[in-house]
Design a protein that fits this description.
about 160 residues, alpha+beta, seven-stranded mixed sheet, two-stranded antiparallel ribbon, 9 strands, about 25% helix, GNAT family N-acetyltransferase, acyltransferase activity, transferring groups other than amino-acyl groups, transferase, Acyl_CoA_acyltransferase, GNAT_dom
């Protein structure tokens, strides 16, 4: 099984918009703990430094991630959305997909740290992100706890 992150194009945007964390399988404007992928894709058109990507396992679309410099935070690099479709949750795809994302960011070479905001009630997400090295900063932003992953450790 190969996990890849791919550009969202005219060929896959609609399927990406249909991904949902809802067990009903019906996407809503406001998913649990995050907004819908369609809203995120639209947001990226108004903030072109944001990078929405589709997550695939081999040729199967399984998730979505959007990252980039956050305009309301001095340009720090943030993961603004990350989700695995409800039918693929619980199979290790969340961690595998996010690990692939981190490796992609590391290859960029210019990003020193990744930030993410998490709802303190979203225990599954907190478990996922801390398992790949994110640490709670003690800060809150927009009602979420801020976590950070240092990609380049300061030599001291």
């Amino acid at each position: 099984m190969s996990i890849t992150l791919r550009e969202i194009t005219a060929d896959n945007y609609y399927e990406v918009c249909l991904l949902t964390t809802n067990k009903s399988g019906v996407p809503t404007f406001d998913e649990e703990f995050l907004c819908s992928n369609s809203v995120s894709i639209a947001e990226s058109k108004y903030y072109p430094l944001l990078n929405p990507q589709a997550i695939y396992s081999d040729q199967t679309l399984i998730g979505f991630v959007m990252s980039g410099p956050y305009f309301r935070d001095n340009g720090n690099f943030w993961v603004l959305r990350y989700m695995i479709d409800h039918q693929y949750q619980g199979n290790g795809f969340g961690k595998k997909g996010f690990t692939a994302f981190i490796e992609q960011v590391k290859r960029n070479g210019s990003i020193e740290r990744i930030y993410i905001g998490l709802d303190p009630d979203n225990k599954r997400a907190i478990s996922l992100y801390t398992s790949v090295g994110f640490e709670f900063t003690g800060e809150r932003k927009d009602g979420e706890d801020v976590y950070i992953l240092e990609l380049i450790k300061n030599a001291s």
